[in-house]
Amino acid sequence: MIGCPGCGSRLVFDIASQKMKCSYCGQLYPVAQVSRKSKDADESIMENNELMQVTVFTCSQCGAEIVADSDEAVTWCSYCGSPATLQSRLSSIRRPDKVIPFKIDKEECVSRYRAIAKKQIYAPSALLKQGKAESFRGIYMPFWSYNFTRGGAYRFPGTKTETFGDEQITTKYLATGRLESHYEGLAHDASLSFEDDVSEKIVPFMQIDSVDFDECYLNGFYANAADQNEQEYRRKMLSTENDLIIAEAKKEFLDIGLQEKEAKAQLSDASAYLVETESKLAMYPVWFLSYRRGDRVSYGTVNGQTGKVYAEFPASPYKYLLFSLLTAVPVFLILNLLLTAMPSFVLFVAATCGFIVSTMFKREVKELFLKQCHISYGKKTRNIDVKVLIGSIGSCIGILAGILAYLVPIIISGFSTGGLSVESETVYLIISAIFLIFFIIRFFTMRGRYMSLTGIHLNLTNALFIVIGIISVVMFAVRPASDWIYYVISFATAGAVAFSVTSLIHGYNMLSSVKPKQFSRSGGDDNA
Q1: Could you say which DSSP state residue 48 is in?
Q2: For the purposes of burial, counting CB atoms within 10 Å of the CB of 507, is it exposed (0-12), middle (13-18) or buried (19 or more)?
Q3: Mean pLDDT by 10 residues, the chain (528 residues)
Q4: In terms of C-beta density within 10 A (0-12 exposed, 13-18 middle, 19 or more buried), how is residue 101 classed?
Q5: What are phi and psi of 418, to 5 degrees?
Q6: C-alpha–C-alpha distance, residues 432 and 427, integer Å
Q7: Fewer beta carbons within 10 Å, N or C terminal of the chain?
Q8: Helix, strand, coil % over all residues of the chain, rounded to 5
Q9: Can you list the alpha helix ranges (DSSP code H) found in 305-385?
Q10: DSSP reduced 3-state for 162
Q11: Phi/psi at 252 (nearest 5 deg)?
């Protein structure tokens, strides 16, 4: 503990003043002043220039390792929410080279987080209520910061096509010259426990606020020790540097149609350039929130320097249901005012909704597979667009509910609307047959991924899609005379789609959360 020179109480880093503040008397001291005194008074803080001795608290449930002051009482884990006292031990870790002190205080952090959270109308109410100041923890996360200096002769190809009347003229270019570049502060998190997908969403950290590391900045916060060597990410960061060079080259050679792929391949030629690399271990500030639901945890993170927010919001099935019912009301009114619900058309709409849900289910299983197997490292993978996913599912349910609500009084009254023309039903038959082909292909291509995720051989959700496709094709091919058959099949199809939607919601919640026991994170401070 670093004590106050005036009263001896604990000193913590104060974000507003960027000074050390006494937790008892409130006196402020410059970091440099307190740092010199603390180092003379306590030799155990730093063993040498490369190592420092810290107290590490370990959670017995999820394995999270929390670096904190030796006198800190850690009563619950910030990463899995376990209300258990963590086991502590002394440990020597590498001393960071640089640190960016917290610039965004907890109140500003909460304000930025809630500005995003209030738009998540499908998120559980408990999570939205949890986004308060006492739920956030201040954590210093380890990052490798890379500086690249490159020199050499470049040869960037370009192609430009111009149209003159009926003729097209393609001109090929070769831009040559001398390349001298220098990029600083290209950062990658140095912890396996801090997910790359999360850390990449809250970068960059601005190096203008970077200062030489001092233990004082950690007082009042928790930290995470680095467990990855800088060589692990050097190639990835070098690729990022190449992208930055290409972006500048595109602006410089705007008129020659720079060929990005070929230019990047030329930059990757080790014999063409002299590349000097410097790496430093830095501690960057992150505000951290965890939300536990069952055996899974969702996280919210805020860049403690810039205020950039990235959060994972699971979906509440009850709020989905409410949205669907609300959507069904205007659909019901529109159908009553404008349309005549023909039974064949209703069945076709139900089958189409099944195809839409099947497409989203396929994409979701792929994302789950990549996340669980950690295949996305070094690759650019698309994350599911939360608003598109939620809107599509909710609209699908609402449209089906509205159509079925419109049909109920028709069925009860025994009203017959007649059939569609042969031409229309033939079109429906062809489209339904195409849907069935896709359902069968997806059943077999997704079987391996689905089994690896669940351990279940039969993918019931995709099997239901196949049943939907077969029934639709048979119905449009046979064209039964009774409208009641269409109604019954339409209700059954709607039920199958609704069941599939529950699988989508479950899968989405898995994507927006993790099982804590799979990770060994560090962080959080009740007093930060």
Answers
A1: S
A2: buried
A3: 80 92 89 68 50 79 72 64 67 89 93 86 76 79 93 89 81 89 90 77 90 90 84 88 90 84 87 90 91 78 93 79 67 60 76 78 70 48 44 50 48 43 67 84 73 60 83 84 80 77 74 58 42
A4: buried
A5: 80, 180
A6: 9
A7: N
A8: 45, 25, 30
A9: 317-338, 343-373
A10: strand
A11: -70, -40
Q: SS3 sequence, 112-138?
A: HHHHHHCCCCCCCHHHHHHCCHHHCEE
Q: Collapsing DSSP states into helix, strand and coil, what is residue 364?
A: helix
Q: How far apart are CA 175 and CA 256, in angstroms?
A: 9
**What is d(CA 49, CA 191) in angstroms, rounded to the nearest whole number?**
21
Interatomic CA distance for residues 431 and 299, integer angstroms: 42
> What is the rounded radius of gyration, in angstroms, for the C-alpha atoms of the chain?
30
Extract the tokens encoding 463: 């099997």
Distances (CA, A) of 275 to 175, 212, 378: 21, 25, 21
Strands 137-164 and 65-68: unpaired
Rounded to whole angstroms, the Cα distance separating 292 from 363 reads 25
> Cα separations (Å) of 351 from 346, 361, 434, 449?
9, 15, 11, 25
| Residue 38: C-alpha distances to residues 26, 30, 269, 403, 486 (Å) | 18, 12, 50, 73, 81
Nearest to 221 by CA among 121, 95, 370, 106: 106
Q: Would you call 249 helix, strand, or coil by DSSP?
A: helix
The residue behind tokens 């009263």 is 7
Q: Closest by alpha carbon to 156, among 61, 255, 70?
A: 255
* Tokens at 227, concatenated: 């467990």
CB 230 within 8 A of CB 144: yes
Query: CB 8: neighbour CB atoms within 10 A?
Result: 12
Burial category of 264 from C-beta neighbours within 10 Å (exposed 0-12, middle 13-18, buried 19 and up): middle
Work out the burial of residue 387: count CB atoms within 10 Å of its CB; fewer than 13 is exposed, 13-18 middle, 19 or more buried. exposed
Please state the pTM of the whole predicted model. Answer: 0.71
What are the DSSP calls for 381-407, one per residue?
-PPP-HHHHHHHHHHHHHHHHHHHHHH
DSSP, res 308:
-
